[in-house]
Specification:
344 residues; alpha/beta; Rossmann fold; 3 domains; six-stranded parallel β-sheet; 12 helices; DNA-binding transcription factor activity
Length: 344
């Protein structure tokens, strides 16, 4: 049997009054008496009536729906960002539609075409690792769709950006390794064109240079799908451990790459931290319970989500075109545990 929602016609039929009277009563119109409103509302509750969101969106010219596009919901960082978005969106009367690109440019384009066809009010996005061409986003943006970028951002559109201090985060992680006696520090990172990659690699290189050493490009391995494919991470790690001068420490510049490096080292029987130190960006709740416990750079993911939705709703609900935009940079936290402590 096909589900059929209760409509104002059903309420009107139940009460023996016109649909226009029911409609006005539900809108709390001054034209309808308090007694009639009471009767209509009681009947609506008895019949389990809920307003039709499509009809409301046509009337208000707003769907009250926000789209969020991330690479992978299973990634703890992105799931925490989504929780932050939802914590505010639902209280403001907006629904959140979540889509995953799985680090695919083609999938991202397809998802955005579908979401745009659903008349979303705004978009919060962290672009996929394959995304270099922003034309699909520019088309939506210049047609008037409010967009907020977070984490992996684009500066090709004049809009709000929410990120962490990527440069200093990678810098302090590298300095931590240097101060703990590690000499040959490698890093695993995402696609070279991503904003987070450029900023984090710059921080890593500056820390190496400040220590008086030269940067060895062979110690930097780019994973174009950000660790989503395990074989990609394994290939990069194999190349590192087979270098003539094998690194004695690894920095993972994203969540998946950090945990992928840990899995590889344990599988190879390489002792952490005695043979190889390991630190990386991670928001996984399990990192302190691993053996060894994992030193991490933790990002304020929940706060990033809250900030992104607040900025987006300010644009959506503004009575005038917004012309000033925020580049919001949040601080990260360095958490030192056993995986970088050689004295353990």
């Amino acid at each position: 049997m096909k589900f059929e929602a209760v409509t104002i016609k059903d309420i009107a039929r139940e009460l023996g009054i016109s649909t226009s009277t029911v409609s006005r009563a539900l809108r709390d119109s001054y034209e309808i008496s308090a007694e009639t409103k009471r009767i209509v509302l009681e009947c609506a509750e008895k019949l389990h009536y809920t307003p039709n969101p499509i009809a409301l969106s046509l009337k208000e010219k707003r769907s009250r729906s926000i789209a969020v596009v991330v690479c992978e919901i299973a990634n703890s960082f992105f799931s925490q960002v989504i929780n932050g978005i939802e914590s505010i969106a639902y209280n403001k009367g907006y629904n959140v539609i979540i889509s995953q690109s799985h680090e695919s440019f083609e999938r991202e384009v397809t998802d955005l075409q579908f979401l745009a066809s659903r008349s979303i009010d705004g978009l919060i996005i962290s672009v996929s690792s394959e995304t270099e061409n922003m034309e699909h986003l520019k088309k939506l943006f210049y047609k008037g769709l409010p967009i907020v970028f977070f984490d992996r951002v684009s500066e090709e559109m004049d809009t709000h950006l929410v990120m962490v201090d990527n440069f200093n985060s990678a810098y302090k992680a590298t300095v931590h390794l240097i101060e703990n006696g590690y000499k040959t520090i490698a890093c695993l990172t995402n696609s070279a064109h991503l904003s987070i990659t450029k900023e984090r690699i710059a921080g890593y290189k500056k820390a190496i240079e400040d220590s008086g050493e030269l940067v060895n490009e062979d110690l930097i391995k780019y994973c174009n799908h950000g660790g989503v494919h395990a074989d990609e991470t394994e290939k990069a790690m194999n190349e590192l451990i087979n270098l003539e001068k094998r690194p004695d420490a690894i920095i993972g510049l994203s969540d998946k790459l950090t945990t992928g490096a840990l899995r590889f080292l344990q599988k190879q029987g390489i002792s952490i931290p005695k043979e190889m130190g390991l630190i990386g960006f991670s928001n996984g709740e399990f990192t302190e319970f691993l053996n060894p416990s994992l030193s991490i750079i933790r990002q304020p993911a929940f706060k990033m989500g809250q900030t992104a939705i607040e900025l987006l709703l300010a644009v959506i609900e503004s009575k005038r075109p917004v012309q000033e935009f925020t580049r919001c940079v949040l601080e990260t936290e360095l958490i030192v545990r056993d995986s970088t402590s050689r004295n353990k």
